[in-house]
Amino acid sequence: MDTLSLVLETFAPIEGRRILDIGCGSGVLARALAERGAAVTGIDPGQAAIRAAAARVPDARFERASAEAMPFADGTFDGAVILNALHHVPGPESALAEAARVVGPGRPIVVVEPLAAGSFFAALRPIEDETAIRAAAQAAIAAAIASGAFSCPRDVTFERHETFPDLAAFLDRVTAVDPARKAAIAADPAGIRAAFEGAAAPGEDGYRLTQPLRAHVLVPAR
């Protein structure tokens, strides 16, 4: 199982589907969906991310917006994806409610979140400890399901594996997501190197890190 396979299964057939990519970043997922015929709209609060996504996927639509207040009418989309983004939202409960509004009842929202576990998390932790915000995202999802606002036909955990030739490549990866992390890296380079080398599994092609991901398919009830 991987994220793209899950998204494609959830929205099959994907061609022609109006999919909202919430927290689209530089447009990697948006491109994969657009290449398969989806009508993709992406939002992100970062202007640099929106520019990068628009350059990567010229056939998609991108807007700078918050997940908690999106500039779309009720029921605009056939579904939405929130990939590795909910834990970055200050109000994850509001983001889920807003996603439900813009897709409408009965239309799925795929939420994929990293857990506070795995070697990737261990390597990242001295740069930015996301233990609390990752837990808050999971709590928001659980509360939304328990409240009856969403049904959850699918809840699956799987692993993402990434290999980096060296520490520099890993640091490029994590600062591309959040450039503010550069300050923490500059403040403790020795500690960060030790955490990376302690967490990563070395191999012939570089250093392997594993991140467990939990995916929920949420269907708004109203």
TrEMBL record:
<dbReference type="GO" id="GO:0008757">
    <property type="term" value="F:S-adenosylmethionine-dependent methyltransferase activity"/>
</dbReference>
<protein>
    <submittedName>
        <fullName>Ubiquinone biosynthesis O-methyltransferase, mitochondrial</fullName>
    </submittedName>
</protein>
<dbReference type="InterPro" id="IPR013216">
    <property type="entry name" value="Methyltransf_11"/>
</dbReference>
<dbReference type="InterPro" id="IPR029063">
    <property type="entry name" value="SAM-dependent_MTases_sf"/>
</dbReference>
<keyword id="KW-0830">Ubiquinone</keyword>
<dbReference type="Pfam" id="PF08241">
    <property type="entry name" value="Methyltransf_11"/>
</dbReference>
<feature type="domain" description="Methyltransferase type 11">
    <location>
        <begin position="20"/>
        <end position="106"/>
    </location>
</feature>
